[in-house]
Amino acid sequence: MAASLVPSALRAPFQGRTWRAFLFTLVGLPLSVLAFSLAVALTSAGVGLLITFLGVPVLAASLAMSRGFGAVERARVRGLLGVDVPAPAPVRGRTGGAFSWMAAMLRSGASWRHLLYALVHFPWAVFSFSVSVAFFAWGWGLFTYPLWRWVFPAYLSQDGIQLYGDETRALYLDSPFEIGVTCGIGLLLVLAWPPLVRGLTTVDRVLVAGLLGRGRLAERVTELESDRGAAVDTAAADLRRIERELHDGPQARLASLAMDLGLAKETLVRDPEAAAVLVDEAHGEVKLALKELRDLARGIHPAVLTDRGLDAALSSVAARCSVPVSVSVELPGRPVAAIEGLAYFTVVELLRNVTLHARARRASVDVWRSEERLMLQVRDDGVGGADPARGQGLAGLAERLRSVDGVLAVDSPAGGPTTVTAELPWRA
């Protein structure tokens, strides 16, 4: 509470993140000097020796050294600035030998980006070190001038900091007014020092993320691999669900139907009336089995969605929901079948959650297109408290949307209302 009464500008010079950023600039200069010197020396030697085979291992060593320095920089950024930059994939040769490793190192774009960082970061480290240390020294020195001004008359035989002096005249900061102005200028420098240092380290964050992290292609490949895994898991879960529903529903009912027809066949001659009862029961079982199969087929992909699109399909779902649901679909056309099907099942899952968990009196479904994105929004006036982190339903739905570059956002405060927004690529 006491800290909140002090303006943030006055707290900034004493905050841990400011001193961590300052430590980052202090440590960065010697590390950058070492990396720059080694990179220039090894790269120059390697390029000069390329007329012989010796240039290849020297260049590979320069790149390996740069990657090692990059690992140190990523750790430094993570520890002092709180930014976690994922490391690029390690370099591996195709055959496992030294020559294969050197060839892979020279072909690695990430390795050359690390070398570029070692060269580019050196002048920036010199600049940020000089500016941050100058503001720190002058700011705190002038701000605390009244505390150490006694050093001048005691040891230097002068009245204070000398602003001007020649053979006939000297000007010192020794009057109360001059001391106050000096202290005020120091305070301004002290207050300007934290945002300045954090601004300087922002450039370091950009350099590390852009040159020492994974390339955009590598990140996209990793993302697609993760999405593919999520899609495979979702498909496997759907297959298990269909198998379970077939086993517990139509398959069991058809087995019972076969038994009833067998009994009817055996009793047909000796007791036609009993056989007629069994056939009538079998007829009822057939109707129930057909209904279960239709429901199962609708759960896989409803015919109304294929024939008439999202508007009619979602209206059909809303009509079967136990909670009154209003549906508004404003689309200029139809997206591809895969996106349309995913949008349909997303709304079905969200309305199922409304029915089972929300205790709502009414709900609404809105579907529209925003540029190249298909937007879905389901609202209810229930008790709220929906959290994707606490259950598998919303978390699984979010994974399924991410597999096609979609997004699921949940706004559900305790007490309600709940608003779930899904965003999918249009892909017409």
Describe this structure in words.
The chain has 428 residues and is α+β, with helices and mostly antiparallel strands. It has three domains: 202 residues, no CATH class; 75 residues, Single alpha-helices involved in coiled-coils or other helix-helix interfaces; 123 residues, Heat Shock Protein 90 (2-Layer Sandwich). The protein is 68% helix and 10% strand. A five-stranded mixed beta sheet has the order 3-4-5-7-6. A hairpin with a 6-residue loop joins strand 6 and strand 7. The radius of gyration is 36 Å and the shape is elongated. The chain starts with a helix and ends with a strand. 25% of the residues are buried. The model has no long low-confidence stretch (mean pLDDT 80).
Summarize the entry for a quick read.
This protein is of the alpha+beta class and 428 residues long.
- Return the string of H and E elements: HHHHHHHHEEHHHHHEHEEHEE
Averaged pLDDT: 80
Overall SS class: alpha+beta
User: What's the count of strands?
Assistant: 7
The first-to-last residue Cα distance is 55 Å
User: What's the arrangement of strands in the largest beta sheet?
Assistant: 3-4-5-7-6
Profile the largest sheet.
5 strands, mixed
- Number of helical stretches of at least 4 residues: 15
Total domain count: 3
Rg over CA atoms, rounded to whole Å, is 36 Å
Q: What gross morphology would you assign?
A: elongated
